Amino acid sequence: MFPFSFTKPADTGAALAAGRRGGRYIAGGTTLVDLMRETVERPGALVDISALPLREITVTPRGGLRIGALVRMADAAANPKVRSLFPVIAQALELSASAQLRNMATIGGNVMQRTRCSYFRDVTAACNKRTPGSGCAALAGFNRTHAILGTSDQCVATHPSDVAVAFTALEATVHLLGPDGPREVAFADFLLRPGRTPDREQALRPGELITAVEIPALPLPLRSGYLKVRDRQSYEFALTSAAVALHVRGGVIQLARVAAGGVGTVPWRLPAVERSLAGQRPSPELWARAAARAADGAQPLTHNAFKADLLIRTVERQLRIVGGTA
Ligand code: SF4
Hints:
Elements: E1 5-7, H1 12-20, E2 24-26, H2 32-37, E3 45-48, E4 57-59, E5 65-68, H3 73-78, H4 80-85, H5 87-94, H6 99-104, H7 107-112, H8 137-140, H9 163-169, E6 173-178, E7 181-186, H10 187-190, E8 209-215, E9 223-229, E10 240-249, E11 252-261, E12 268-269, H11 271-277, H12 284-291, H13 306-323
Parallel strand pairs: 1-3, 2-3
Antiparallel strand pairs: 4-5, 5-8, 6-7, 6-8, 9-10, 10-11, 11-12
Helix pairs in contact: 5-9, 11-12, 12-13
Bound molecules: iron/sulfur cluster.
Iron/sulfur cluster binds at residues 115, 117, 119-120, 127-129, 136-138, 155-157, 198.
């Protein structure tokens, strides 16, 4: 290990002051501590924000949901408001990591977690995300689990979060607090594609921290759910996943929200699928026709061409599960 300082501010002002001085925020510690042990990350100062009052889940006046950044994954998944309003969030959380990790990790930390690209975690490998300008070992290496959407010639790593896929489908907003005060960023703009700067992963300004994620009210009844396909049924990241939310009234799909995980450098919204569903009557043929658009624009690598077909089948199956054929 290497030397670093550790502070645990009692209030938000002190935490922001420490963040402004360059401290790294830490809460559950389930990502950053691992990376520090492997010397992938070497922060000089840790700021433990777990004492801050960011653990509430509330229904907003308009009927949306606000989840505090320090709410544990397990607590969010078990919350009755989350389960009744947005089952897709609860399911995505329950299919994440392990029970032990879900009891420690927070919603804010989950969104901020770093990629599981094995080259990123191997400090002897070239990795533009870890060391800008060093190259990308995954491009010519073993890239079976890497992204087929949103990639660049600098980085092809997937974003590992499941609940971020649900937040993307539901058009969530990230609430931030920094030295210049609070601000909000659409979830779709918060996580950044790699482009030329894969080391920059979130639209955060220096010293900012996440205070909450807010899901806007959506028309009721809303049926939603999350499907995750992986190499083993527990404690594994997605090869593909699909978050689906449908509002059906009068036998017609009034609103469709679909996003995919395990395939993009960020959680991947599927607008072509959504357009295919809007205004249509649920049927097995519709699910198949809409899902066929899920891999539009995919650019497979040497070892992951299977993901395009798997994504289409994942989306079709989840449309069938959520939408039925009524
Ligand atoms: Fe690093 Fe991204 Fe390449 Fe993985 S895919 S080695 S994270 S640059």
